[in-house]
Structures are given as C-alpha cells and as structure tokens.
Amino acid sequence: MNITYFGHSCFLFKLNGKVILVDPFITGNELVKNIDVDTIPADYILLTHGHQDHVLDAERILERTNATVISSFEIVSWYAEKGFEGHGMNTGGRHKFDFGTVRAVAATHSSQLPDGSYGANPLGFVITADEATFYIAGDTGLTMDMKLIPMMCPPLDFAILPIGGNFTMEYTDVPLAVEFLACNTIVGCHFDTFEVIKIDQEEVMAYFRDHDIEGHLLSIGETKEI
Asked: Where in this chain does the record put each Metallo-beta-lactamase domain (predicted)?
C-alpha cells in the first residue's frame, strides 16, 4: 500500500477509498517545505495523543474536511466541544470502521492538549484493512506491551516506529521491537524535527541493514509503496 509522509509523525494512507491522516503537525515544522496544509484531504484523522507536535493542524484540517477524529475518549470529547465529530477509544479497544478495523494499543508516553487540558493516556493503533495490517506506535518507549500485538492481531505488514530518542524510543531499540512485533519492515518517524531528536540517517539505515531490518526513512512529501 502507498503511504505519504508529511514530516515528524504525520502520515497519510488511503484505505478502502478513504483517506486517513495521522498526527498532523505541518505548519509548525520548519523542515516542511512546499506542502500546503489546506490541500491535504482527510476522511479520518487519527491522533495518538494530545501534544502540539501531533495535533497542531488537526482543527484547521477538520474545519475544511469535516473528517472524523479517532483518538482517546478525552481527546475526542475535547474536539466535540469545538463542534467536530469523533470516535473515542481507549487502550485495548477495537472498532470496525468503513476503511478497516482499528485496535487501540498501549503507548508509554505522556499527553496534554495545547490548552493544558488532560490528554488521556497516549495510544498506538493497529489498523487491519484489505490493503494491509500495520502498527502506528505513536510516541512511545520500547515496551513489553508490543509483544501482545502479534498475539492479538493479524500479522503485521509493517510498523511505524519513533526512532529519534529523547522523548521516545530510539533507533537502537528497533531490533527488539522487531522481535516483539514479529515484523521486520519498519517505517521511522519522530526524528530530525528538533535538535534533540536529530539522527544521522545514513548511520541509522546502515544499523538497520546490519540487523536485517527492512527500514524506510521517507523524505517529507514522499509517497512510497510499502
């Protein structure tokens, strides 16, 4: 399936004719050039947690697209107060949408909305659709909860993992994550946006090759078949 990367942790997928956008942080990202946030389509917006670097452009896109927010109950409620539609979930929950099935899984991080409101527990998502089954880790450290995913979900075709360190797991944690997830096709995210999470991409890709990991670091704006 094709995925498009808009920087940081923002991805776009097309599943069963629907457009799913994840964690839109575009206008605040100095690395993003020549991407007009007002042209990005969305039928659904998945938000892993409430930090500004994951939700900054959500409201702007929602106003234009009338997309449905999928996130924690508390975050969906926060957007509902602004007049937006949503579907709230929580850790361990599963729901079938018209594009596929979403299971909310644990992420070890924190969460606070931009106005200081409680952002609930952060989440990851496993999406099972006709096109593929894949894991969006969100912001998380390496956690033993990842071992549950292959026990509870169809085999993963790929996993999107944060690799920048400091706030999340880093790329040297990926071999263990691959073992836990029973999936060695990895798309990296949450790197280079800020000084503290900058990586040497050539070094990271060499590390992945040395550990027999099929790693992908997409360029901003790139669409790639995984």
From this structure: 7-190
Strand partners, 135: 126, 159
User: Which tens digit of pLDDT belongs to each residue from 88-141?
Assistant: 999 999 999 999 999 999 999 999 999 999 999 999 999 999 999 999 999 999
What is the Cα gyration radius of the chain? 16
What is the SS3 string spanning the chain? CEEEECCCCCEEEEECCEEEEECCCCCCCCCCCCCCHHHCCCCEEECCCCCHHHHCCHHHHHHHHCCEEEEEHHHHHHHHCCCCCEEEECCCCEEECCCCEEEEEECCCCCECCCCCECCCCEEEEEECCCCEEEECCCCCCCHHHHHHHHHCCCCCEEEEECECCCCCEHHHHHHHHHHHCCCEEEEECCCCCHHHCCCHHHHHHHHHHCCCEEECCCCCCEEEC
Structure tokens belonging to residue 123: 């989440």
- Mean pLDDT across the chain: 98
Beta bridge pairs of residue 19: 14
Beta bridge partners of 58: none
Is residue 42 within 8 Å of residue 61, measured between CB atoms?
yes
CATH of the domain at 177: 3.60.15.10
**Residue % of the chain over a pLDDT of 90:** 99
Q: Which residues contact 63 (CB under 8 A, 6 or more apart)?
A: none
- Count of domains observed in the chain: 1
